[in-house]
Amino acid sequence: GTVVSVPPSEKKWKVGDRVGGPWHGGHDHNCRACGRGLFQMCSNKAINGVTRNGGYGQYATLRTEAAVRVPKDAEPADVAPLLCAGVTVFNGIRNMGITAGDIVAVQGLGGLGHLAIQYARKMGYRTVALSRGTEKKDFAMKLGANDYIDIKANDVGEELQKLGGAACIVVTAPNPDVISPLLNGLGPQGKLLVHTAIGPVPVNTVPMVLNALSVCGWPSGHAQDSEDAIAFAQTHGVKCMIEKFPLEKAQEAMEHMLAGKPRFRAVLTMD
């Protein structure tokens, strides 16, 4: 959206600036996480749409430290998903310390997964798409995947090891049963990056100990992370597939989303 009002003391933002309101809605600047620059992990963080009102309206209030600067030439509907799904996978992958050319596998080809494949490939990793069946293979290859593994017909661990073992596997689909088998596909010091809240999962610690494997998560990002995700997407052609709904059809859009039907993000427009 566009800034329409700022307090008299505001120095960073002015009326007319293009702005976005991401998942991260604010931080206290005082806790240990904030002291380390991990503002989205603040002990007293605000979350837009959860602890603060979200964006299902013509106007929204944003805390200035968490507002995201959006390029004037960017299409709002294209940028909106990058403020949540986009920055989540972009920031998670780039914080895993992976060497360019290593294998990054992406489990799931939904909203998060189709962006993760694009970001990972453009970051310079050998990108492997993991999904059940062969129906999504062509789609995954068009997104930029170097390889595709049908995890329904194949042992995903064995197939990844044939490729050399993954430095990182990004988990985007909420299926706890895939976690343990995916560990078998990691190379030495490999990381299983979980981007979906799936609750307790069974994990075989033997390969973790023998190969220094780890299971970790990464919670989205703060304003600068979102701006980095947008800039990277603009530079390298990363694009989220969206379905647009006018604001007056917000309920229809919500029902569509809850039914798991969007390909791959539903976006409310103010047109």
Please explain how this structure is put together.
The longest helix is centred in the C-terminal third of the chain and has 14 residues, at 223-236. The chain has 2 domains: 2-74 and 222-240, Medium-chain alcohol dehydrogenases, catalytic domain (Quinone Oxidoreductase, Chain A, domain 1, Alpha-Beta Complex), CATH 3.90.180; 86-217, NAD(P)-binding Rossmann-like Domain (Rossmann fold, 3-Layer(aba) Sandwich). The protein has a 6-stranded parallel beta sheet, with helices on both faces. Strands 1-4 form a two-stranded antiparallel ribbon. Strands 2-3 form a two-stranded antiparallel sheet. α3 (85-94) crosses α9 (223-236). Helix content is 29%, strand content 20%. It is globular and about 60 Å long. The protein contains 10 helices and 12 strands. α7 links the parallel β8 (166-171) and β9. It is α/β, with parallel strands linked by helices and 271 residues long.
List the helices and strands and how they pair.
Layout: E1 19-20, E2 24-26, H1 32-35, E3 46-47, E4 68-69, H2 76-79, H3 85-94, E5 103-107, H4 111-122, E6 126-131, H5 137-143, E7 147-150, H6 156-162, E8 166-171, H7 179-183, E9 186-194, H8 205-211, E10 214-217, H9 223-236, E11 242-246, H10 250-258, E12 265-269
Parallel strand pairs: 5-6, 5-8, 6-7, 8-9, 9-10, 11-12
Antiparallel strand pairs: 1-4, 2-3
Keywords: Metal-binding, NAD, Oxidoreductase, Zinc
Family: Belongs to the zinc-containing alcohol dehydrogenase family.
Domain Alcohol dehydrogenase-like N-terminal: 1-72
Brief summary of the model shown:
By secondary structure, the protein is an alpha/beta fold.
